[in-house]
Amino acid sequence: GASQGLHALLEERIHNYREAAASAKEAGEAAKARRCERGLKTLESQLASVRRGRKINEDEIPPPVALGKRPLAPQEPANRSPETDPPAPPALESDPDPRALLSSRQREYKVAALSAKRAGELDRARELMRIGKRFGAVLEALEKGQPVDLSAMPPAPEDLKPQQASQAPTAPSVIPPAVERVQPVMAPDVPATPVAPTESQTVLDALQQRLNKYREAGIQARSGGDERKARMHERIAKQYQDAIRAHRAGRKVNFAELPVPPGFPPIPGLESTMGVEEDAVAATLAAAEKLASAEDSAPADKDEDEGEPPAQAPVAKKPARPTVPSSQRLPEPRASSSKESPSPSVREQLALLEARKLQYQRAALQAKRSQDLEQAKAYLRVAKCLEAQIIQARSGRPIDLSKVPSPLTDEEGDFILIHHEDLRLSQKAEEVYAQLQKMLLEQQEKCLLFSKQFMHQGNVAETTRFEKLAQDRKKQLEILQLAQAQGLDPPTHHFELKTFQTVRIFSELNSTEMHLIIVRGMNLPAPPGVTPDDLDAFVRFEFHYPNSDQAQKSKTAVVKNTNSPEFDQLFKLNINRNHRGFKRVIQSKGIKFEIFHKGSFFRSDKLVGTAHLKLERLENECEIREIVEVLDGRKPTGGKLEVKVRLREPLSGQDVQMVTENWLVLEPRGL
Asked: Which terms does the record give in the GO molecular function aspect (predicted)?
């Protein structure tokens, strides 16, 4: 029964939108016709989903629309006899207490609107609230001593049919002293236009006509004692003055922000720009709805869509440029030619940003379906930031690709490089599946890491390439997991050698810091009277930057009772990459290490050896990993010290590395 009622509601709403679209086309309202057609498409897709037995969100059903004004009946001759005129409606002066009657009726509409909202009838609630608000203007006029007419007062809320939303009654009207016929109180606060103005030939003439009209309206309102309306018309006239000056100077004018007096034709050449903002919003919603419906109907309509090409990702269409005659062409910015033909690098950046934005939009839609609204909002915020970067790129401004959000993954983090040359898969199905999944996951993480490194370097082509490889690894992993869940045998597979040229970078480091890691000591010498197993070693270092007097110093913790201690301790050193003193230390001094045996309460620490690490390789590499000799003066002691130094990126150039991998390939015949 619920589905039948929803089916009937959608059919009735479709009929309403078809009539509204036809009425708008007859009246020449192109923007309204387009909105009705978009709502009609949404209703038809919802009706198709209901017929297939799927559930839809009733809050997303487009509301009913007004059918527009009917053609006016021909006016009667002006010289008809006064006997045939209908009697004038009685004024409210004969009513003993009109204020109480209006206040009571207004309160009835507010209570009815609140009840309709609690019952879920949002359209009727809005309609009742709009009617109730009109009583306020009538009460205000009554307090000023103006006569009002109650002949057009809306009936009680229970007598008002919800179907008459398009023909909702108006509030009682105020009778101005100088007008014999009744003027509606809730008419828009714009000057009345009894005679339609002639259509302008140029944009400047149209703006001047509107300016003159609002000036006249302001003068009339001030002469009638209505200061509020006079100030409003003067503000609008000021807007038109600014628009005329901007148009004459060749600057861009936003005509959508300028109010239009009733009866005035559109500005020449700007008919197609009406409703552009609403069209963009509706296009975004329609794109999201299409994306959702396409993903929902993919399993059910697989056979029907098998012969059709795959649907492309929804992209919001740009509004059509208004067709203006050559003599009336609007001035355009000079930079438009550069926007029409962006450079190849800009095109690559735009493609990357739009693909990343679409990925976050899909993730937001998936999170919303999973009832994870907070995650969906977070994804949408990231997509909004990407939209701002897309606009910035299209305008020709540079983009910092290091600030572009990373692609969405199931799990991110560091990984250990594992080679699989000598790996032999087990014959057991579960072990084979586990090993294949492990290799695919490692390769996916490796591609994501390479993509992030190239992103920081601003290399869009390589970033996109490794992102596609990561997506391929993820898809292969999903296929493998599906086959295992279905109880199938492991797929046949083979390995292919792939060589990648990568750029090494430590993106987690700042450009103003250098990391020193003292890893371990090996076979360190012991001082006289101490056996190697009783050595309590620690390492002290000095880095002579910014100068020798202010050298950065520190030491490791003490590792007792071994001559091969594992320190694995990190120290952060402050640097300035562009400072000449820093480059001099890198080229000549390096880092000095001293290894000590920890003394007791009565004995001081004993120096057992020194070591020195050169840093020249940081010019072209971002990491130095060395095992340096431990010396006693200039004499080798046989001990060694393993240390590492890292920068965010090399001081000059790039740390390019060639990586060769055994690439796992699953053969589709095995699935």
From this structure: DNA-binding transcription repressor activity, RNA polymerase II-specific
